[in-house]
UniProtKB/TrEMBL annotation:
Native species: Pilimelia terevasa
Active site, UniProt feature: 260, 314
The protein's name in its UniProt record: Citrate synthase
InterPro entries according to UniProt: 2-MeCitrate/Citrate_synth_II, Citrate_synth-like_lrg_a-sub, Citrate_synth-like_sm_a-sub, Citrate_synthase, Citrate_synthase_AS, Citrate_synthase_bac-typ, Citrate_synthase_sf
GO molecular function: citrate synthase activity
Length: 375
């Protein structure tokens, strides 16, 4: 038996996948073979979601059907809304989302039906309902009653409507769609791998998604987008960026929104998101946002100069969500709204050629010894 230990599974190829590929050498990412920058430039979020589940982009008829199905399933039933309303306001919104997915599984009679068609139906239902859940919780924390989904609006427009009771200008909606497209899928990242591990035991899709939400919550993964905003708030003054960074690095702190397990020369998605953010700041940024954007730029330049470490997608996305008006604790739940597509596509792929995922550990505990006589 090999005694090679791959801590964190770094560099280990555990299976094949046809959903996406991250090519670290060229800093590129493709979904179903299509470069993500081209998808972000020319396709809607709904089209990209369809692509991840079906392996190709929809034609006009397929897109119309897909949109209609998503719009028809946005509602959360009353029992679900009441359950979420009873959760303590002190809990993190990711806990609310995790509970919501658990609830939706528990009340779905097809929960254990792992047929691809049944799992696709569940995936689409979660895709449609998660914005309703996230928005309900955003409003609850602001002391506001929930709003009803509007089937006349696109996915992104409806989400703004559900959160704020209004749809912002088209360029803001489009920037939000770009964050959805970029966050949707990233091969065997920690949360997707979690979903695949759970699926590999032949557990159900809702359990896989619930586990994936737990993995995404952590600040070394999806939780970093919230941590970025907290960090920018902590530094506050652009003139303090370099000094703050030097101190944080001396204290061996992790600088949130920087570094990546796969990309060592920059995250393929950052240039696309950075361009969308720059456009948002110039079109909609007030003096306060411009000041934060200044701090953001200084910190990024200093991190590159000090450590040679580039930002990951969570860095520009955090400021974009802040500018759009979302409260920081909603950032990782918004990531879930997007990544639900990638997770569930991987659930289906895992089931298609399933093998139990069960690695080994190299034991370092005491040698075998006799159990002492009891007292
Ligand atoms: C959507 C996403 O999930 S993207 C990732 C979001 N997460 C974050 O932004 C959290 C901050 N980043 C990190 O902690 C890391 O870069 C990770 C966890 C994302 C990837 O880490 P790994 O690939 O395991 O790299 P590892 O942790 O081994 O770091 C390599 C070196 O770079 C340093 N490094 C990496 N990222 C950072 C960072 N953000 N701040 C400070 N130092 C860092 C490490 O300290 C280490 O230095 P050393 O070799 O001197 O000890
Ligand atoms: O791939 C990773 O390790 C983390 C990441 O960027 C993502 O999940 O989008």
């Amino acid at each position: 038996m090999s005694t090679d230990i791959h801590r964190g599974l770094a560099g280990v190829v555990v299976d094949t996948t046809a959903i996406s590929t991250v090519i670290s050498e060229t800093n590129s990412l493709t979904y179903g073979g299509y470069p993500v920058q081209d998808l972000a430039a020319s396709r809607t979020w709904e089209e990209v979601a369809y692509l991840l589940w079906h392996g190709d982009l929809p034609d006009a008829g397929q897109l119309a059907d897909f949109r209609a199905a998503e719009r028809a399933q946005r509602g959360l039933d009353r029992a679900g809304a009441e359950l979420l309303a009873r959760l303590p306001a002190t809990c993190h919104p990711m806990d609310v989302l995790r509970t919501a997915v658990s609830y939706l599984g528990a009340q779905d009679p097809t929960e254990d039906d792992a047929d691809p068609a049944a799992n696709y139906a569940k995936s689409l239902s979660l895709f449609a309902k998660l914005p309703t859940v996230v928005a309900l919780d955003v409003r609850r924390r602001r002391g506001l009653d929930p709003l009803q989904p509007d089937p006349a609006l696109s996915y992104a427009e409806n989400f703004f409507h559900l959160c704020f009771g209004a749809v912002p200008p088209a360029d803001v909606v489009r920037a939000f769609e770009i964050t959805m497209i970029l966050y949707a899928e990233h091969s065997f990242n920690a949360s997707t791998f979690t979903a695949r591990v759970i699926t590999s035991t032949l557990s159900d899709l809702y359990s896989a998604v619930t586990g994936a939400i737990g993995a995404l919550k952590g600040p070394l993964h999806g939780g970093a987008n919230e941590a970025v905003m907290d960090m920018l708030a902590e530094i506050d003054d652009p003139a303090r960026a370099e000094q703050w960074l030097d101190r944080a690095l001396a204290e061996k702190r992790r600088i949130m929104g920087f570094g990546h397990r796969v990309y060592k020369n920059g995250d393929s998605r950052v240039p696309i998101m950075q361009a969308a953010l720059d456009q948002l700041v110039s079109a909609h940024g007030d003096a306060r946002i411009r000041r934060t954007a200044d701090l953001y730029g200084r910190l990024q330049r200093a991190m590159l100069a000090r450590k040679g470490i580039h930002p990951n997608l969570d860095y520009p996305s955090a400021l974009a969500y802040h500018l759009m008006g979302f409260d920081t604790p909603a950032f990782t739940p918004i990531f879930v709204m997007s990544r639900i597509t990638g997770w569930t596509a991987h659930v289906t792929e895992q089931l298609h050629a399933n093998v139990l995922i069960r690695p080994l550990g190299a034991y370092t505990g005491p040698r075998q010894r006799p159990v002492p006589a009891g007292a």
